[in-house]
Amino acid sequence: SLGIEYSELLIPKEAVGLVIGKQGENIKKVNNETGCIVKFRPPGPHEDDRYRICTFHGTTSQIKKAREQISDLVEYLKQKFGLARPIPKPGQEFAEVRVSAAKAGIVIGKGGETIKQINNLSGATVCIDRSVPDGSEYRTFFVVGNHQQVEHAKYLIREKSGETCELPLGAIMALNPMLAGEAFANQPPLPPMLPMVMPQYGFDPTGGLQSPWYNPPQPTFEYSQQIPVS
């Protein structure tokens, strides 16, 4: 009907049951308070199984209010139950960066200072997956933001963990020109130059030692120029 719009929001799979609530009480409350029809769409065969799609049908203002309530609820659940994955907003990307467990602490930093710095420099939202069991060989960092922010954060995570940066230098300079110097510094050293091999000496036709630049004497010619008499 006229004025009815449609919107979607990705919700981490582990948060879906809590968002719906016991016998659907949470999602019913959002429907009643906003006037928006909020549902979870059945997962499709080619969709990311880490998320479920929450759908919204209503006017622009109804959808805005409902999305805000659902997002606030998920953020509350993340803080209360430790849900790790950040939720991408429309137009944002989601990425995972896996580093060795021994280097994860370096990326986080003392008191979380390093990961806060990565967030501030890149503009992305970066957090570590806390659902990984103890003793795992690798830890995963979740990254959410626009394309440039995500790529910048991925570079910073790999740089802090000591892994090789996969970005070309041009992309690094586009993200942050200050990083270009670090990229050059992290390049492997050039191989040593091979010693110069000098050409072999030979002998000139007269029997003397001939250098590689030997230039035999050229014959000279004498000639006279006749100047016409006018």
UniProtKB/TrEMBL annotation:
Origin: domain of life: Eukaryota
Keywords annotated in UniProt: Repeat, RNA-binding
Repeat keyword on record: yes
All copies of domain K Homology, residue ranges: 3-75, 91-162
Alphabetized InterPro entries for the sequence: KH_dom, KH_dom_type_1, KH_dom_type_1_sf
Keyword Hydrolase among record annotations: no
GO molecular function: RNA binding
Name recorded for this polypeptide: Far upstream element-binding protein 3 (Trinotate prediction)
